[in-house]
Amino acid sequence: MFKNRILDTFIASTFVVAFCCISCSGKKEKRPSPLVVDSIQVENTTIKIEYSSPAVRKRKIWGELVPYGEIWRTGANRASFIELDGDLVMEGKKIPAGKYSIFTIPTDSSWTIIFNEDWDQWGAFNYNQELDIIRWNIYPQKSSFDERMKFTLDNNALKFDWEELSWSLQFEPKL
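Predicted structure:
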């Protein structure tokens, strides 16, 4: 009798665990800002970028969701980051191999693009300007509409597109 109760409890517990596993393994809810990882090999240098891709979702992006004149993590969730396994020249400036967060300061006409040594951080809450390794001042271009923010790596540029705005940084490996 006691053995039967233990066996019944074991069988019932097994069914409960199996049901929970099957229920949880179904289609997972999509993240509002999915994680994107991309990489490219340029000669002897591997360039990797990781970021969370927010969507427009009928919101005003520039000047509201992303305020003008304030530091932005250039994505959602964790700060976006770029990793280089070799030295690289971007827009004429040498960047040593390493991992760097990508921050920006957008305005209505120009942006400051920042690579910062503190690559592993959430948002821009702990941004420290003293850890910037490089800054560029660029002028974004009007572009076709992109619902999701994206970075694109190709053989000669890191490109950014979101909403109706784009910019790029040209690069070459440091030989």
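Summary: The two ends are 79 Å apart (CA to CA).
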